[in-house]
Amino acid sequence: MDNININIKTLRYLFYASLVIVVLADFFIHREKIEFFWDAIPGFSALYGLVSSILLIIVSKAIGHKLLLRKEDYYD
Amino acid sequence: MIEWVPPAAIMIVGAFLIPLLKGKVKQAYLLLLPLIVFINLLYMGEGTGWVIPFMEYSLIFGQVDKLSMAFGYVFVIMAFIGILYALHIRESGQHFAAFMYVGSALGVVFAGDFFSLFVFWEIMAFSSVFLIWYNKEKASRDAGLRYLLVHVAGGLSLLAGIIIRLVNTGSIEFGPIDFGSLDSYLILLGFMLNAAVPPLHAWLSDAYPEATVTGAVFLSAFTTKTAVYVLLRAFLGVEILIWLGAFMAVFGVVYALLQNDIRRLLAYEIISQVGYMVAGVGMGTILAVNGSTAHAFTHILYKGLLFMCAGAVIHMAGKRKLTELGGLYKTMPITLGLYMIGALSISALPFFSGFVSKSMVVSAAAHEHLAVVWLLLTLASAGTFLIAALRLPYFVFFARDAGIKAKEPPVNMLLAMGLAAFLNILIGVYPAILYGILPYPVDYVPYTGEHIVWALQILLFTALGFFLLLGKLGGEHAISLDTDWFYRKGSRSFMWFVEKPLSAASQWPVDILMRLKDYLIWLGKNPTQAIFLYAGTIVFKILGRFPGMPPHASERILEEGWSNYPGEPVRKSPVGDSVILVLIFMTAYAIYYYFVS
What region holds the NADH:quinone oxidoreductase/Mrp antiporter transmembrane domain (chain B) (predicted)? Predict the structure, then answer.
């Protein structure tokens, strides 16, 4: 059990490290084509990914609870 | 001369032999048939073959070009994988339905005319529904029937479009269609229904989760991708498809987040992924067409893999909901590993198949400077990773231990899953084999530093969002309403309307005539007295008494008259009764005649 906890802890640090590394890398990467203005902003896609996921979860669940979700026997 | 045969013919004719075979021979035959079709594919040269005169038209069973070949290859590969996955099933009927379904899908892909296309289109619906019905539960029977009815309706729209087109142009050739006339709208509607474009999508998420474990694998591959193929051939550059596709991609993700049933979750993910392909059709550029084709190709492989792994969980654990599952990583680690390969492919992680195909469509949107479309498709990418690669595996294989005693699935299932996983990685690592068979020469390089860093940022920070909001993401004991509500509840309103107001309304004339009959019988007992009674009542109402009589006595006489009716019929003059009746009818006739003339 202890082993698993240590592993999870290690994984968590690795995960945080990879977040930092990938954003740092975006500052140094060579950009060949810029189609939209945000293509030039380092870390934009990190921000967009984070905002997207949080927005999707909150909005979907809100729509679900306000409007769409019914008991499982609703159609029976 | 022609040294190849239409693949549909081999598949469909071959399917009829299945019920005659048994045991190992049957298993060998099932695996052999897709192999024969594949070898046959390799001999098919581009051009138009198998043109068969039919009345004054030509049926074309072999319209072969790079587009139809790309779909042909992946359909046959998936047929092999799917049948390997289903090899342990003894019922010949299921295999027969599956091969009829694959065969008719191949028929659509190589059809060069609308007649044969329509016939194959209908065989697809009528054979695939058995993959749902073979699950033999009430939910499956009901969902299968709804699936069939919806597809028949879509087929009718397509047929109406084909007939109008034939009348207007005199041609049944299947090719690019000018968008803007009634026939093009009807045909597009039929195609969009099979592509599961909202609001015509609910048949998919309604029926696929109720199919058999092995049937759902076939279903996930063929119907929607056949629809993408016909859209690519007929409706390139129809702008509304860009927006419908982008909407679809996000719509599927939003609904997938609400699902508790693992295969229903994956079904909504199909809708989301087909959204990319539909958007690609709408853009219609070379990059977009290549992207849609490539994405259909990889989608069949990774979605088939996901459905196989979800099916393996359902098959071995006997449960199908996130709320009932959990902790399976201990007992089904191989399934988990293979599932993750499919999940990372659909999420477009670098070195997995989705990365080299989905990004073509997204890049096509960027090249066209469609900023909103690009943002929506990227949003849907984040959502896909969130749901398919994090939410589902977390709650099925980790989270709380549900204490389910499950083992790894049978070896044929594992082999099929392994083969699909291998192909997904192969395409991801070595995209040239996929790019080589696309409709146009590919001038696209997926593996650039900026693209990899871009994708990793999106995915890793989506994972961060997942862990931050993990508490909100578990399955819920609920189902979500969708557009199938209109026919599932709507049919009930219809039945209520038939049973209550409509049948009551049909009863009214009967009631009225029955009362009229009763009245005439009553009147016939003593018409003379009845008329005197009516006359007396009218006089009494007006004057308050009879002439020459006090009111009190008048009232008593009248009451006695009514209560004694018919009393002793006045037999003094039976002729008189007849005369009075004749007079009544003649008066009625005179009045009628007066007004009519």
Answer: 111-379
Q: What is the pTM of this model?
A: 0.87
Tell me how far apart the alpha carbons of residues B389 and B384 are, in angstroms, rounded to a whole number.
Answer: 7
More confidently predicted of A33 and B559: B559
Burial of B449 (0-12, 13-18, 19+ CB in 10 A): middle
In a domain, A75, yes or no: no
* Residue B567 confidence (pLDDT) above 80: no
Task: State how far the Cα of B135 lies from the Cα of B144, in Å rounded to an integer.
Answer: 10
The answer to whether residue B1 scores a pLDDT higher than 50 is: no
> Which distant-in-sequence residues (6+ apart) come within 8 Å of B157 by Cβ?
B186, B187, B189, B190, B193
**3-class secondary-structure state, position B284:** coil
Tell me if B395 sits within 8 A of B322, measured CB to CB.
Answer: yes
CB pairs < 8 Å spanning A and B: 136
- Classify residue A75 as exposed, middle or buried by CB count within 10 Å of its CB (0-12, 13-18, 19+): middle
Please indicate, yes or no, if residue A7 is contained in any of the structural domains.
Answer: yes
Domain count across chain A? 1
Q: Are B255 and B345 in contact (CB under 8 A)?
A: no
pLDDT digits (tens, 9 = 90+) for B281-321: 999 999 999 999 999 999 999 999 999 999 999 999 999 99
Q: Please, what are the averages of pLDDT over each run of 10 residues along chain A (76 residues)?
A: 73 94 92 87 94 96 93 89
User: Which amino acid is residue B410, in one-letter code?
Assistant: P
A50:B464 CB<8 A: yes
d(CA A32, CA B92): 56
Query: Phi/psi at B58 (nearest 5 deg)?
Result: -115, 125
Of the listed ranges B65-74, B117-126, B441-450, B521-530, the least confidently predicted one is B521-530
Q: Which of residues 257-276 of B touch A (CB under 8 A)?
A: 257-258
Q: In Å, how far is A41's CA from the nearest CA of chain B?
A: 11
Cα distances from B267 to residues B149, B334, B346, B355, in angstroms, run 19, 23, 13, 20
Domain definitions of chain B by residue range = 236-482, 526-596
Residues of A in contact with B482 (CB under 8 A): 68
pLDDT band at B574 (very low <50, low <70, confident <90, very high): low
Q: HSE on the CB side for B75, CA within 13 Å?
A: 32
Q: From A58, which residue of chain B is nearest by alpha-carbon distance?
A: B472
Separation CA B182–CA A22 (nearest Å): 52
Q: Write down the number of H helices and E strands in chain A.
A: 2, 1
Report residue B219 as tokens: 């279903």
